[in-house]
Design a protein that fits this description.
The protein contains 8 helices and 15 strands. The longest helix is centred in the C-terminal third of the chain and has 14 residues, at 247-260. 40% of the residues are buried. The protein has helices at residues 14-25, 39-47, 67-75, 109-114, 116-122, 134-141, 206-216, 247-260; strands at 4-8, 32-36, 53-60, 64-65, 80-88, 92-95, 104-107, 127-130, 147-151, 162-165, 175-182, 192-199, 221-228, 236-243, 264-277. The strands form 2 sheets. Strands 1, 2, 3, 4, 5, 11, 12, 13, 14 and 15 form a 10-stranded mixed β-sheet that branches. Strands 8-7-9-6-10 form a 5-stranded mixed β-sheet. It is α/β, with parallel strands linked by helices.
């Protein structure tokens, strides 16, 4: 049976490129790709069993964690990360007009943030307008002489648009980690273990005690990030990635979870998975 893979659409986004690469790495045979209007929509399709997998961005090297993805993983604990890739991100300014006439710049909020310095220096009076995706932004600027979109150079062919500037991202090494999600936990080799927790008590040293347990097992944290629980002011969810190098590490991680559970109000294991860097053509 062909797998249905949801991703942040429409076609032409970096998420679509990631969906094709991750589906190939997962050995999906001729998958059916389902573009979605928004990250949460893609994850909800998986959560409500309307697709087999979903591909979404989870972290950017400039802007940090993708909050919509992190919040959804916490909300749907039955979903696991199976694989991850890191894609280099190089943004172009795309339009039907000329740079001197641009008064509005459209793109996904992450893309706008990743190019904020360039915009302030080159288009200081332009209004930044967020869209659901870079591809949607490009579609919205077709035929306009005063609007421009930020997106991949591969989107320039849409509607016969042209490249006004490239690359425009503020950091040359800008990259984004995309993850393949499903309801099957991954038991294969891994180099990352991801999880999140909220603490039972909000007292001095409570978080330090949890972090010390991680250190005692010899794990290196490649990420630690907090997000509001949305239940009360001052209550946070802690998201952590650990480096996993061998089967002993995975065994130690199981023991670590047993140590952390008594300290946590809630603990969600996102899974162990392999993440690799990928170069685009």
């Amino acid at each position: 049976m062909r797998k249905q893979v949801a991703y942040l659409g429409p076609k032409g986004t970096y998420a679509e490129k990631a969906a094709h690469i991750l589906s190939k790495l997962a050995n999906f045979q001729t998958p059916i790709f389902v573009p979605c209007n928004g990250l949460h929509s893609a994850i909800k399709l998986l959560a409500y069993n309307n697709c087999d997998a979903a591909v979404v961005p989870i972290e950017n090297s400039v802007e940090g964690g993708v909050t919509a993805t992190l919040d959804a993983l916490w909300k749907f604990p039955e979903i696991f990360i199976n694989k991850a890739i890191v894609l280099p991100i190089k943004h172009a300014l795309i339009s039907d007009g000329e740079l001197s006439n641009i008064s509005e710049v459209l793109s996904h909020p992450q893309a706008l943030a990743q190019c904020s310095e360039w915009l302030s220096e080159n288009l200081p009076n332009a209004i930044a307008l967020p869209t659901n995706s870079t591809s949607e932004a490009v579609n919205m600027v077709k035929g306009s002489k005063f609007r421009a979109a930020i997106g991949s150079k591969s989107l320039i062919q849409i509607g016969g648009l042209k490249e006004l500037a490239f690359p425009i991202n503020d950091v040359p090494g800008n990259c984004t980690r995309f993850v393949l999600l499903s309801k099957d936990s991954n038991s294969n080799l891994a180099n990352i273990a991801s999880f999140a927790f909220s603490l039972i008590s909000n007292k001095p040293g409570a978080l330090l005690k949890a972090i010390n347990n991680i250190a005692d097992f010899g794990f290196n944290m490649s990420k630690i990030e907090s997000r509001p629980s949305k239940r009360e002011l001052g209550e946070y969810i802690i998201y952590i990635d650990l480096e996993i190098n061998n089967q002993n590490n995975i065994k130690n991680f199981l023991e670590l979870k047993n140590k952390l559970n008594p300290l946590c109000k809630n603990f969600v294991d996102f899974g162990n998975y392999f993440s690799e860097n990928v170069e685009l053509d």
